């Protein structure tokens, strides 16, 4: 599972001003991340505004991402939802060419019990064409996957290889680290807690701000991977304000504003999301300028 150590980035989906997918912007973004030293990519996670995209659009974006990446980095596809049978059908029809794993968010809105969450992932694990990564993000799903459920799944299914944990609970992180199989990966799902989670034993991060700052973020993560947490701390602290700004008006509006400032792609988002406010855009531009200055 070394291919999923370090810094993964959950790609935004660039859109043209008319709302169509901006494939040139996506190409720019992928090349920006490869050149910035990112370790792997996630196509069409929640940061990719997947909920607003048609099945045909998703297929095209997945195929184009694999084509542009050209096996330079490991690729993960985000395929999840709150209808188990529909998610399973999407997995079965997924073109795996160029992809190494599937990241699947815990079912949202329905508020399933822990047994329901277990049975959902059991069903998916038994039909998935690729290894599976769990994704626990209670702030979006309104349903927490407990450490017991996570570790039960990890022990019961060899093709469930990791969890992206965005619960923000160190009690949960501690329990997962203690009880998981040795080769099962705990991955941070929140940029601001990457360093402390890696100090605990997490394998890295699936990042949002890495879209804009791949080198700064992946350099910090590599120091953590080498056990140099003292060396990583200044880089970690230097990113605190940018991270706060990036999420101040929701994800991915803030990070798209940063990408526009960097000339990588536009800042268009699809409704019901709205672009970052002009005041936030200005604050992000100032912070990017500050981060570009030599230390």
TrEMBL record:
This is 4-hydroxy-tetrahydrodipicolinate synthase. Pyruvate binds at residues 47, 206. The keyword tRNA processing does not apply. Keywords: Amino-acid biosynthesis, Cytoplasm, Diaminopimelate biosynthesis, Lyase, Lysine biosynthesis, Schiff base. GO terms for biological process: diaminopimelate biosynthetic process; lysine biosynthetic process via diaminopimelate. The gene is dapA. The record marks 46, 109 as: Part of a proton relay during catalysis. Belongs to the DapA family. GO terms for cellular component: cytosol. Pathway: Amino-acid biosynthesis; L-lysine biosynthesis via DAP pathway; (S)-tetrahydrodipicolinate from L-aspartate: step 3/4. GO terms for molecular function: 4-hydroxy-tetrahydrodipicolinate synthase activity. The keyword Nuclease does not apply. Pfam families: DHDPS. SMART domains: DHDPS. Catalyzes the condensation of (S)-aspartate-beta-semialdehyde [(S)-ASA] and pyruvate to 4-hydroxy-tetrahydrodipicolinate (HTPA). It is an enzyme of class 4 (lyase). It is found in: Cytoplasm. Homotetramer; dimer of dimers.
């Amino acid at each position: 599972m070394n291919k999923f150590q370090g810094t993964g980035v959950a790609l935004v989906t660039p859109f043209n001003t008319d709302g169509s997918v901006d494939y040139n912007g996506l190409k720019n973004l992928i090349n920006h991340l490869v050149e910035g030293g990112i370790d792997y990519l996630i196509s069409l996670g929640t940061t990719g505004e997947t909920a607003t995209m048609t099945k045909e659009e998703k297929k095209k974006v997945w195929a184009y991402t694999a084509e542009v990446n050209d096996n330079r980095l490991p690729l993960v596809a985000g395929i999840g939802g709150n209808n188990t049978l529909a998610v399973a059908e999407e997995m079965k029809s997924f073109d795996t060419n160029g992809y190494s794993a599937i990241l699947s968010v815990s079912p949202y809105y329905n508020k399933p019990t822990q047994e329901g969450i277990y049975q959902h992932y059991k069903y998916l694990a038994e039909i998935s064409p690729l290894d599976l990564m769990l994704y626990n993000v209670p702030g979006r799903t309104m349903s927490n996957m407990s450490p017991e459920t996570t570790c039960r799944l990890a022990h019961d299914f060899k093709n469930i290889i990791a969890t992206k944990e965005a619960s923000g609970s160190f009690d949960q992180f501690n329990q997962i680290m203690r009880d998981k199989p040795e080769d099962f990966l705990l991955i941070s799902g929140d940029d601001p807690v990457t360093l402390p989670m890696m100090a605990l034993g997490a394998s890295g991060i699936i990042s949002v701000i890495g879209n804009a700052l791949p080198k700064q973020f992946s350099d910090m993560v590599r120091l953590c991977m080498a056990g140099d947490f003292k060396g990583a701390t200044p880089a970690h602290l230097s990113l605190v304000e940018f991270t706060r700004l990036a999420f101040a008006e929701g994800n991915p509006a803030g990070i798209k504003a940063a990408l526009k400032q960097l000339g990588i792609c536009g800042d268009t988002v699809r409704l019901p999301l709205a672009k970052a406010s002009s005041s936030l855009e200005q604050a992000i531009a100032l912070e990017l300028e500050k981060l570009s200055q030599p230390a």
